[in-house]
Amino acid sequence: MPPMNPRVDELLDYLDRSAATLDAAIATVPAAQHDQRPAEDRWSVREVVEHLALVEAGITKSYRRWLDAARAEGIPAEDQTSPLLAQMRMDRVVDRSRRIEAPPFAVPTHGLTLDDALARLERSRAELAALARSADGLALGVITHPHPALGPLTMYEWLAFTAAHMERHAAQIAEIRAALRA
Questions:
Q1: d(Cα 56, Cα 60) in Å, to the nearest integer?
Q2: Across residues 78-96, what is the average pLDDT?
Q3: Is residue 110 over pLDDT 80?
Q4: What is the distance between the alpha carbons of residues 77 and 12, in angstroms, rounded to a whole number?
């Protein structure tokens, strides 16, 4: 099997690093506080993870649909191997100085335990990574789909967004920990 395009490798590595960052952030909050909100209008750790599970499930479903359509339309082969992440403006996703309201489908419903939310998040992440691997060799940079806050993103950027979104919420969990300690 030929090696994977470095672009796909780079973005899957970012996804893995972001997942590890999220796991580490969760581990810093005592289990007894996972359901505790730092303020009435803020989410608990469990709710943050449920939100991530909902968002990633939606992204994964959309990514599969977009990839199927691109293949049906005859997406060209990827002829680029240059790194992408440094060019992508994912800092605007990670930056927590601006509050972003979650769309209704991504608001935690209090229906999942933390373990259930983590399991769903892991399944979605694994499925998204498998989809990206299956698209290796395809020019994912030529396919764009709109993000409600960021505008059009390529399929490469959607992978990076997913990772940056996890980092954003890992930082939120650090904020929750600090607020609960205060």
A1: 6
A2: 92
A3: no
A4: 19
Q: Are 88 and 152 in contact (CB under 8 A)?
A: no
Residue 112: CA count within 13 A, CB half-sphere: 23
- First and final CA of the chain: distance in angstroms? 53
Q: Which residues pair with 146 in a beta bridge?
A: 152
Query: Residue 165: which pLDDT band, with cuts at 50, 70 and 90?
Result: very high
**Position 98, amino acid:** R
Provide mean pLDDT across the span 157-173: 98
Tell me the residue type at 60: T
Determine the Cα–Cα distance for residues 136 and 109; give it in Å rounded to an integer: 35
Instruction: DSSP for 18-86, please give it.
Output: HHHHHHHHHHTS-GGGTT--SSTTS--HHHHHHHHHHHHHHHHHHHHHHHHHHHHTTPPBP---S--GG
167 and 20 Cβ atoms separated by less than 8 Å: no
What's the confidence (pLDDT) of residue 121?
A: 97
